[in-house]
Amino acid sequence: MTTNGTLLARTRYRLRAHPLAFDAGLAVLVFVAMVLASFTDPHGSPDGPTFGDRVPTTGGTVLMLCGASALVLRRRHPIGVLAATSAFALVELVGDARPAPVAMGAVIALYTVASRTDRPTTWRLGLATMALLTGAAMFFGGTPWYAQENVGVFAWTGMAAAAGDAVRSRRAFVDAIRERAERAERTREEEARRRVAEERLRIARDLHDVVAHHIALVNVQAGVAAHVMDKRPDQAKEALAHVRAASRSALDELRATVGLLRQSGDPEAPTEPVSGLAVLDDLLATFRNAGLPVELTRTDGGAALPAAVDLAAYRIIQEALTNVRKHAGADARAEVSVLRVGRTVEITVLDDGAPHSALPGQAPADGGGHGLLGMRERVTALGGTLTAAPRYGGGFRVQAILPVTGRTGEDDA
After folding, report:
1. 10 to 6, 17, 21, 57, 272: CA distances (angstroms)
2. Are 395 and 355 contacting, i.e. CB atoms less than 8 angstroms apart?
3. Which residues have C-beta within 8 Å of that of residue 138, sequence separation ≥ 6?
């Protein structure tokens, strides 16, 4: 079965690769069938058809040869070949050159037209060919109009048109399925690339928030330690302890973030709780230890938020306070408020220091930062709004309004 299937597939491929050779072979087979049919007399005896009692004339043989030869070009010029074969068949029927079934060529040509053109063209040419050949056989033939040969012309032309139309419909159906499958494959690949890009952007934002926050604290505490190392070693030790704690926290968060990239066979991810407003007090404590006075106001009652909203709120506060510590000056103070208003949660971070960004969404003055841009991307992804601008009278204000139910598809607990 495998050998036969392989041979059949190989033969089909070769025939499709050389259509002209296939049509030439088909023309030869049709001519042989015409010649054999011309020697057959369906009414030769009372017992049934006979073979060899009649022979085709020279004119009939020429018509059969011309009708079969025209089929070589049936793919390139289907309508022209149909017209030529129909003309040869008319000459045979009207001129009474029978027995010479030249109409076989017209039947093959009509099938080709129906399989390679549209349905309206098939209907028009099919009905015209059926009426023309059947009428010529009925009115100009030597047999009564109701003879089976005349009915056979009508039946064969009708079946050729129907078969060709069915083949064309099936071919169009298969092409549509193939195109749909290819389009689905392209769409799936594009969706996969889009999801990968979104995941890379999200991980990049998390890494930026973690590194910027903790490295800023390490930098501040290291500067304090270097400044008081000789005069106040106890305060230097305390600053170095804060450096150690901040670096350890940064390593833990980096390990948790990179753990998202593990595959199924890798070791299990850390089981520590993820960042969120539940650990907001610990976050503010790190800034207070770094010398930034921070006041907190919360009216949400510690209610649980969707995971995406909870993480975004935490990261926004973290990044805003990091910018305050880096750019607002040594004497700056900060205020953080978390308010639950209806179906939204409002995060506001205020400071009274020097402005640390010229325009909303612009990088900090020292260049190279993406903090405000990352915050805006987080808020936009959740369907919220972000406002970041200098305050009247000095300082800076960052406010984010996050929907509790939104694009994340999650609801509050």
Report:
1. 6, 11, 15, 41, 62
2. yes
3. 145, 150
How does pLDDT run across 11-30, given as a tens digit for each residue?
767 767 777 888 888 889 98
User: Can you give the chain as a three-state secondary structure string?
Assistant: CHHHHHHHHHHHHHHHHCHHHHHHHHHHHHHHHHHHHHCEEEEEECCEEEECCCCCCHHHHHHHHHHHHHHHHCCCCHHHHHHHHHHHHHHHHHCCCCCCCCHHHHHHHHHHHHHHCCHHHHHHHHHHHHHHHHHHHHHHCCCCCCCHHHHHHHHHHHHHHHHHHHHHHHHHHHHHHHHHHHHHHHHHHHHHHHHHHHHHHHHHHHHHHHHHHHHHHHHHHHHHHHHHCCCCHHHHHHHHHHHHHHHHHHHHHHHHHHHHHCCCCCCCCCCCCCCCHHHHHHHHHHHHHCCCCEEEEECCCCCCCCHHHHHHHHHHHHHHHHHHHHHCCCCCCEEEEEEEECCEEEEEEEECCCCCCCCCCCCCCCCCCCHHHHHHHHHHHCCCEEEEEECCCCCEEEEEEEECCCCCCCCCC
Q: Tokens 């005349």 identify what position?
A: 150
Q: Which of 102, 91, 24 is nearest to 56 (CA)?
A: 102
- Residue 364's pLDDT band (boundaries 50, 70, 90)? very low
Whole-number CA gyration radius for the chain: 43
Confidence band of 331 (pLDDT split at 50, 70, 90):
confident
At 183-218, the pLDDT tens digits run 888 888 788 788 877 777 777 777 666 666 666 666
Q: At what angle do helices 371-381 and 148-228 cross, to 10 degrees?
A: 140
Question: Quick one: how far is CA 11 from the chain centroid?
Answer: 35
Within 10 A of 212 (CB to CB), how many other CB atoms are there? 20
Burial 140-162 (b: 16+ CB within 10 A, else e): ebeeeeeeebbeebbebbbebbe
Give CA separation, 376 vs 33, 197, 381, 384, 385, in Å: 79, 17, 8, 9, 8
- 15-36 as b/e, with b when 16 or more CB fall inside 10 Å? eeeeeeeebeeebeebbeebbe
> Please, which residues bridge with residue 296 across strands?
336
% of the chain residues with pLDDT over 90: 10
The pair of three-digit structure tokens given for residue 104, joined into one six-digit string: 């076989």
